[in-house]
UniProtKB/TrEMBL annotation, chain A:
Residues 138-149 have a biased composition (Basic and acidic residues). GO terms for molecular function: DNA binding. This is RNA polymerase III RPC4-domain-containing protein. Keywords: DNA-directed RNA polymerase, Nucleus, Transcription. It is found in: Nucleus. GO terms for biological process: tRNA transcription by RNA polymerase III. The keyword Transmembrane helix does not apply. Residues 150-162 have a biased composition (Acidic residues). One of its GO terms (cellular component) is RNA polymerase III complex. It comes from Lentinula aciculospora.
TrEMBL record, chain B:
GO terms for cellular component: RNA polymerase III complex. This is DNA-directed RNA polymerase III subunit Rpc5. PANTHER family: DNA-DIRECTED RNA POLYMERASE III SUBUNIT RPC5 (PTHR12069:SF0), DNA-DIRECTED RNA POLYMERASES III 80 KDA POLYPEPTIDE RNA POLYMERASE III SUBUNIT 5 (PTHR12069). It comes from the Eukaryota. Residues 190-210 have a biased composition (Basic and acidic residues). GO terms for biological process: tRNA transcription by RNA polymerase III. Residues 69-103, 153-210 are annotated as: Disordered. Residues 162-177 have a biased composition (Acidic residues). Keywords: DNA-directed RNA polymerase, Transcription. It comes from Lentinula aciculospora.
């Protein structure tokens, strides 16, 4: 590691960028004339001039020449024109006039700085050992990445050791390849898949999801539960994550009076039967992580209600005792989530799968209000003469 | 709402047989798999747990192909990791194989438990029925880079007057309670020569603020106690069964509810009114 060759011996702890370099100022305080060489004394061929200025500015900021000993010379010469002779072509004109007019040349040019240029003397071609297999994706991204298969750009034939890579497809190159940033789609693109995305949005903007996430969410939610009716064989085995409100109703398998299970239909068309074993009522949602000795988990297994799919696309969960929930899509995480079964008895950690979609469950407001009214009206004793009056809530 | 007709009704079933957890990987947007090159050489994902502290670790073999892996640094880091393991007494008693030069061939993801606020359930549609299962715990996994601490400690000792930013004395001491930052450092110093310098620095500081040691707040003490308890607990190895394995299939079978009977609900809609 080379330290910055400053005039003094031990390096001061002060931030060097703020301190004036001793070599720039003479004893009288005037600026020394700096000799700027027209030719650099040493230059590595495999470093582009474009990222060249970046380490120089970093270096100025940190005052250290670690790993880039020559950077300081070039840092001083930053104001001067680029050293002429060994310059490596990069940028929009990298491959000559043929590429200049192509609208995708700019996209390619970004990758030009990262791909070895023909002038590199080294024979180990950077892309030689790549596996050429696609990097794996989390399943739920399949939907979104289906678009954009539209155009395969036709590039000019590659030169000797240059491989033309479309930045959108960089993921296909290797198992470890990074994800490319998705282009923001224009609304018109959905209807016209052949149109190329406008240049303006080509780089960097990731507001893809925000615009049409809401529209998509209803559709996709519909797909999740609506399709099942028509596709009984396709047990997709997707894992859905439901977030219920914290007062989740407690369920228990309660004993009836030893008779046969009683089936009677309520107006909400639910079946209410009683199971035959006796078990104490216990919360079925233990957060048993903190104190395993205290919570006794009751084994629950049975039917609790129905998920109703409406034509409008709404979904409701209807449980016993008139409990109705609204199902709405929650914000989807962009990272990996797995459902896992931890069996401490067998010391086993089994992965059940990746979570496909998140849903948020909230109580249905209409039902709640109706129930509240009903509760209020039944709990009052109406005195004579008060039938038409509304009771004030003084609680 | 009144004209809205129901076009499909799916029964919902509940079961809670399994101890279900959600593992989140915030820094990962790909499936958790061993890279094909590692699988070919027989490496698999492994896991271990500290049951009392509720900490899990998942070790994922890294892709060691030359194009994406730097061998020289891996030796450096591997040595650091080995030292780190020894310090924390979590060194894997070797399976008979003594590697001359340890390499950093796996990524360790360490978990933190996230407190659950609402009731969370996992649902799978199976046979035209939605099976729900409550989730016990949620863990977030992030890679541990503790081997870097050891390496920076060594380089700090070695280059005492090197003003690299890495070798800063750490974050500026908390004006109220500087002592706790010093105490663990003192415990872990093992090197011979340079230690003298370090100890002097530490000793000086504790001398200056000796009075404040007793002012360690209770919360601070509790935190330290938890951290020490966690460090003292030893790891238990777990058998990691990936998604496609038979073991995972067994677990999945247990997930579903098989009882056709209806469970009795003791609550009412009005419980949601608070």
């Amino acid at each position: 590691m080379s330290d910055t060759p400053s005039g003094s011996g031990p390096k001061p702890k002060a931030i060097s960028s703020l301190a004036k370099r001793p070599s720039e100022v003479t004893r009288q305080g005037t600026q020394k004339l700096k000799f700027v060489p027209t030719l650099p004394t040493r230059r590595n061929k495999d470093v582009e001039p474009v990222p060249d200025t970046i380490p120089a500015s970093n270096e100025r900021g940190r005052g250290r020449g670690r790993g880039r000993g020559r950077g300081e010379e070039i840092g001083r010469g930053r104001g001067a024109s680029r050293p002429p002779v060994e310059m490596v072509a990069s940028g929009p004109f990298a491959l000559g006039p043929a590429m200049a007019g192509n609208s995708n040349s700019r996209r390619f040019a970004q990758s030009a700085t990262s791909i070895p240029t023909p002038s590199r003397g080294d024979t180990s071609y950077l892309g030689a050992g790549l596996s050429q297999t696609a990097a794996p994706k989390i399943k739920r991204e399949e939907h979104k990445s289906q678009k954009g298969e539209q155009d395969e750009e036709a590039y000019s034939d590659p030169d000797e050791s240059v491989e033309i890579i479309d930045m959108e497809n960089v993921r296909q190159m290797d198992w470890m390849a990074p994800d490319s940033i998705r282009k923001a789609r224009v609304k018109g693109l959905k209807k016209d898949p052949d149109a190329t995305a406008p240049e303006v949005n080509a780089v960097g903007t990731v507001d893809v999801d925000e615009d049409d996430a809401d529209e998509k969410d209803l559709e996709t939610m519909f797909d999740d539960f609506g399709k099942i009716h028509y596709d009984p064989d396709g047990d997709s085995q997707h894992l859905y994550f439901f977030q219920f409100p914290s007062t989740f109703p407690t369920f228990s398998a309660k004993q009836s009076d030893h008779t046969q299970a009683n089936v009677h239909r309520t107006p909400a068309s639910k079946k209410v039967t009683f199971a035959q074993d006796v078990k104490p009522e216990i919360e079925p949602q233990p957060s048993s992580s903190r104190d395993p000795s205290v919570t006794v988990k009751e084994e629950l297994d049975g039917l609790i209600g129905h998920l109703e799919v409406y034509r409008s696309g709404a979904r409701k969960i209807r449980l016993a005792n008139g409990i109705v929930f609204d199902v709405s899509p929650a914000s989807q995480p962009s990272f990996l989530e797995q459902a896992v079964h931890l069996d401490m008895n067998k010391n086993k950690l089994a992965i059940l799968g990746e979570i496909f979609r998140h849903y948020l469950i909230s109580p249905d407001v209409d039902t709640l209000l109706n129930a509240m009214d009903a509760l209020d009206s039944t709990s009052q004793t109406v005195l004579v003469g008060e039938e038409n009056l509304i009771r004030m809530d003084v609680t | 709402m009144n004209e809205d007709e129901i076009i499909n009704r799916i029964p919902i079933r509940l079961s809670n047989r399994l101890s279900l957890q959600i593992h989140q990987f915030p820094l990962l947007s790909r499936p958790l798999q061993a890279p094909p090159s590692a699988e070919a050489s027989g490496k698999r994902i492994t896991a271990r747990i500290k049951p009392q502290s509720h900490v899990l670790e998942i070790h994922v073999p890294a892709d060691t192909r030359l194009e994406v892996y730097n061998s020289e640094r891996s030796h450096e880091f591997g040595k650091g990791r080995l030292d780190d393991d020894r310090e924390k007494n979590q060194e894997r008693k070797g399976k008979g194989r003594e590697e001359e030069e340890p390499r950093l061939a796996e990524i360790r993801l360490r978990s933190e438990e996230i407190p659950q606020r609402n009731v969370q359930m996992l649902g799978i549609v199976h046979d035209n029925e939605l099976h729900l299962h409550p989730i016990n715990a949620t863990h977030q996994f992030r890679p541990t880079l503790t081997y870097l601490d050891i390496l920076s400690r060594k380089s700090k000792r070695r280059g005492g007057d090197d003003s690299d930013s890495d070798s800063d004395d750490g974050p500026p001491p908390d004006p109220d309670e500087p002592a706790p930052a010093i105490v663990p450092k003192k415990k872990e110093k093992k090197a011979a020569a340079a230690e003298a310098k370090e100890v002097q620095v530490s000793a000086r500081r504790t001398d200056d603020k000796a009075g404040n040691l007793s002012q360690l707040s209770n919360a601070r003490k509790e935190m330290l106690a938890i951290i020490r308890a966690e460090q003292d607990e030893s790891w238990q190895n777990l058998e990691y069964c990936g998604m496609k394995t038979e073991e995972a299939g067994h677990s999945l079978d247990q997930f579903f509810s098989y009882n056709k009977e209806v469970l009795y609900c003791s609550a009412d809609v009005t419980t949601f009114l608070g």
